[in-house]
């Protein structure tokens, strides 16, 4: 069918943008060249469908289809990636939204309520350390005064990065006044659908999660002349903390990861003076998350006392638990007999849900469960099943004659 051909053609168009020749992974950092190219691609795709894109002062985008009355149904996702990430996390939701619109037109559907396709910027938080920054700013969960002083790894301020991309934050942010419901399609970042042997699922909840910066300070010294017992080595404190985080998460059935590290002076023959490490922690409840992080910090403080080092922990981006509208999820799941499952990954859908917008998520099976990696994947047949599922969901929510 045409929507299927459109999906595969769009996917081929996106495949080379921001892709590393060495690893095969993607570097689609917000307000940099690859992500800017993708946002331009989105404008072109919408124009080809007769839609006009509104781009706000930081790069969030939305295009609306239909002139129906009442609050609209917004779908879409994001186009940025983690460092050396996969192809599907984010772009699958945008491409599927465009293909779902094509499918609805092929069916002859005229929505009773407008349907929007949106793209939020800096969802991953991989450049400026604040996950879902675009949607946080739009919903007011983060203010511009709080965000504008954020810096990336090269010391570039957020405000300067946005200006460098040809955008002007003073132009304002997207309004969500037209949005009655938000539906985000996403590749599943886990193996639940694989284990169930189904291609599509709906989301029940998002685990609470966050990022904490651990600054371990010690004393720089010579790697050869300094006796082991005379050292104040923050790397040792960090190493024990990483092991403690792993153990505590395993014992509690939760998640804890130290995946980013900065060392000063970062010399091979020097005891470091400072080790900065970022903890990503996730848990099944807000209390469980707080307990996990507190226990990791307690053990880190104890080790710092023995190593003669010091520790400062700073929360940088923390999101509470999100429980999606159970009645809405059940209503939509009934359209295709799809399972309703939880996710441990954060999404813009969680931010909009926390802002009081009725929200749902559609997941597409990931055959390996691997994500945030060049090995992230979803089969074409499953992606097309996701497009059809999203079209069914949008038709139901927009009040069309064939599914109402």
UniProtKB/TrEMBL annotation:
Keywords: Hydrolase
SUPFAM superfamilies: Bacterial exopeptidase dimerisation domain, Zn-dependent exopeptidases
InterPro entries: Amidase_Cbmase, Bact_exopeptidase_dim_dom, Peptidase_M20
Family according to the record: Belongs to the peptidase M20 family.
Alphabetical list of PANTHER family matching this protein: ALLANTOATE AMIDOHYDROLASE (PTHR32494:SF5), ALLANTOATE DEIMINASE-RELATED (PTHR32494)
The protein, known as: Allantoate amidohydrolase
Source species taxonomy: Bacteria, Bacillati, Actinomycetota, Actinomycetes, Propionibacteriales
């Amino acid at each position: 069918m045409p929507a299927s051909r459109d999906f595969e053609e769009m996917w081929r168009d996106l495949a080379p943008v921001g892709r590393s020749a060495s690893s095969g992974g993607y570097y689609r950092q917000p307000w940099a060249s690859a992500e800017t190219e993708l946002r331009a691609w989105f404008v072109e795709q919408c124009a080809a469908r007769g839609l006009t894109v509104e781009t706000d002062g930081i790069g969030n985008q939305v295009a609306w289809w239909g002139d129906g009355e009442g609050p609209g149904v917004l779908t879409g996702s994001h186009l940025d990636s983690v460092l050396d990430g996969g192809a599907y996390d984010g772009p699958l939701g945008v491409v599927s939204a465009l293909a779902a619109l094509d499918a609805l037109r092929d069916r002859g559907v005229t929505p009773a309520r407008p349907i929007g396709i949106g793209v939020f910027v800096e969802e991953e938080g991989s450049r400026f350390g604040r996950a879902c920054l675009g949607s946080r700013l739009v919903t007011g969960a983060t203010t511009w005064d709080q965000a504008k002083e954020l810096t990336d790894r090269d010391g570039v301020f957020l405000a300067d990065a946005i200006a460098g991309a040809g955008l002007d934050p003073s132009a304002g942010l997207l309004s969500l006044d037209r949005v009655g419901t938000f539906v985000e399609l996403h590749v599943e970042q886990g193996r639940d659908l694989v284990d169930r042997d189904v291609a599509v699922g709906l989301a029940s909840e998002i685990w609470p999660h966050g990022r904490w910066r651990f600054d371990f300070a010690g004393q720089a010294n010579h790697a050869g002349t300094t006796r082991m017992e005379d050292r104040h080595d923050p790397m040792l404190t960090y190493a024990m903390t990483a092991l403690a985080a792993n153990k505590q998460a395993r014992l509690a059935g939760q998640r804890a990861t130290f995946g980013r590290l900065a060392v000063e002076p970062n010399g091979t023959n020097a005891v470091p003076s400072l080790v900065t490490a970022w903890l990503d922690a996730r848990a099944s409840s807000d209390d469980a998350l707080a307990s996990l992080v507190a226990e990791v910090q307690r053990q880190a403080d104890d080790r710092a006392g023995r190593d003669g080092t010091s520790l400062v922990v700073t929360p940088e981006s923390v999101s509470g638990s999100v429980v999606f509208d159970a009645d809405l999820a059940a209503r939509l799941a009934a359209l295709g007999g799809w399972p309703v499952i939880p996710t441990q990954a954060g999404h813009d859908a969680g931010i909009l849900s926390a802002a009081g917008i009725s929200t749902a998520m559609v997941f597409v099976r990931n055959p390996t469960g691997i994500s945030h990696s060049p090995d992230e994947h979803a089969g074409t047949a499953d992606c097309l099943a996701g497009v059809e599922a999203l079209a069914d969901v949008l038709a139901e929510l927009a009040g069309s004659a064939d599914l109402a």
